[in-house]
Design a protein that fits this description.
The complex is a heterodimer of chains A (331) and B (243). Chain A is an alpha+beta fold. Chain A is built from 13 helices and ten strands. Helices cover 66% and strands 0% of the residues of chain B. In chain B, helix 2 packs antiparallel against helix 3 (56-71), helix 2 packs across helix 6 (137-163) and helix 6 packs antiparallel against helix 7. Classes of the chains: A alpha+beta (331), B mainly alpha (243).
Amino acid sequence: MKSLSDRVLARLQADMQMPDLSGTRYNLLRYVACGGMGSVWLAEDTVLKRRVALKVLDFAGPADDLGVRLLREARILASLEHPGIVPVHDAGTLPDGRAFCCMKYVEGQTLTQHIATLNLPDRLRLLERIAEPLDFAHARGFIHRDLKPDNVMIGAFGEVLVMDWGLAKVGVTSLEAGETEIARAVQPTQNSLHVTGQGSVLGTRGYISPEQARGAIEVDHRTDIFSLGAILTFMLTGSAPGELPAASGTMPRPLRAISEKAMAADPNARYQSARGMTADITHYLNGEPVSAYLENLLERSGRVFARHRTAVVLVGVYLIMRVLFILFVRR
Amino acid sequence: MHQNSHSGSFPITRHSLVLAAQSNDPATRSRAIEVIAAAYWRPVYKYVRMKWNIAPEDAADFTQEFFSRLLEKEFLDSYESSKGRLRTFLRTCADRLFMNQARDSRRLKRGVGTAHLSLDFMEAEQELATDVRSGSPEDSFDKEWVRSIFVLGLAKLQASCESRGKLIHFELFERYDLEDADPKPSYAQLATEFGLATTDVTNYLAFARREFRRCVLDQLREMTTGEEEFRREAQALLGVKVT
């Protein structure tokens, strides 16, 4: 067999990567991105005439454990119907044996790309919206386990979507509490536990909780609270925790305290829910005290002044005028 | 020992090639080394030519000696798959052998004491002259490895198409995907040329590409020692930049 030129080699590599959609309802449009287990492609659903995102594994393994994981991700997404979670349309196996999952194609920006244009209050409001689907998933017994700025998309209409639930697992606590039957339906099989459990370390440095980094199997939803705290740090400083320690000095103290509480090494010392954390964010936005930070008298006065600026100014003006009036009358 | 580019004829079970190459049975070992040599002789030859800047005939001798030592179990006995990839291991072995030879100043004379593989060094040399040089010799080694695995995959694809009476699928694939022509022929042109409907051309090409992918990954699976190494090597082979 004759050797291959560089150009042919590159062409064959591209061919090899391309998902084989022959005989399916999808037409390949273009490559979008790739990750640890596969790539994402923009395709057209020829039946419904709409654009969709196809997540396709790089290859089919003999035991196809990653295929099991992708199917599990699809089932998790299917069971989590929430405006903040990307909807799944279909899942299966392509003619070339690779597992795929078809999802809504979200046109927009990742959080990383998006935040540069936002002021502080808008960034905090965005964090509240990231926490909503997370809280929804936690209540149904699911843990994301790979929450990071690149897994949050802001769509063309301003919608906030939490993406990539490939590492998600069913939380033990919620199952024990019997909160949901949905979580039981997608409980990992022995095989899929092998993929994501058994002490293996999964997640992204900077956003992964200490217990998850240790490979602890029994992580619960508070691992996502840690990641949410790391995202808050990123949104306020532009860097992941640990990347630029000095940058934390620029964060307002109550927000730094919120971030530190969310990222406490001990899960018991963290906020116990995403909702609890966003309540503090809301308090901060409203000029109210936050539970994570004990302010001194000066800070409290400053906050009260900032919150009731008009009333304080009016009272001040009234008092000054009153004093001036009294002085005038005495004269 | 004669190198056979049709390594598909060697009935190796998945992930068993390295074990076969470490076998005490000379025949098993020899056949396994043939397959390894088929995939690695070009990377080794071009690597030493680029990295050490030695003459073509010295590089050819070195390559023969390298695989001869592999056959004698000098290198592969120390290979442990848990410690790294076969590809990296073999490149390190090539470096070590070259350094030892240079240090001892007892490089073998051309054609003496080495088991002879029938390798087309002339062709490799012509490729070196026309290759676009980019990156380090190590990058070149990796790129040549990809090229070799693809070439072996193509041989498998051809054999598979022949045995299934689908040679026209392979010929279409060869014409459309393997020729260096720019621009590529259109599907309509191929349909006229092969006397087929255009839809048949696209279907046959889809089949050939799917089979090619399977053949290449099967080839790779034979040459790796486990699933983890296979997955990492497959991503390198596909040119996947994992983020």
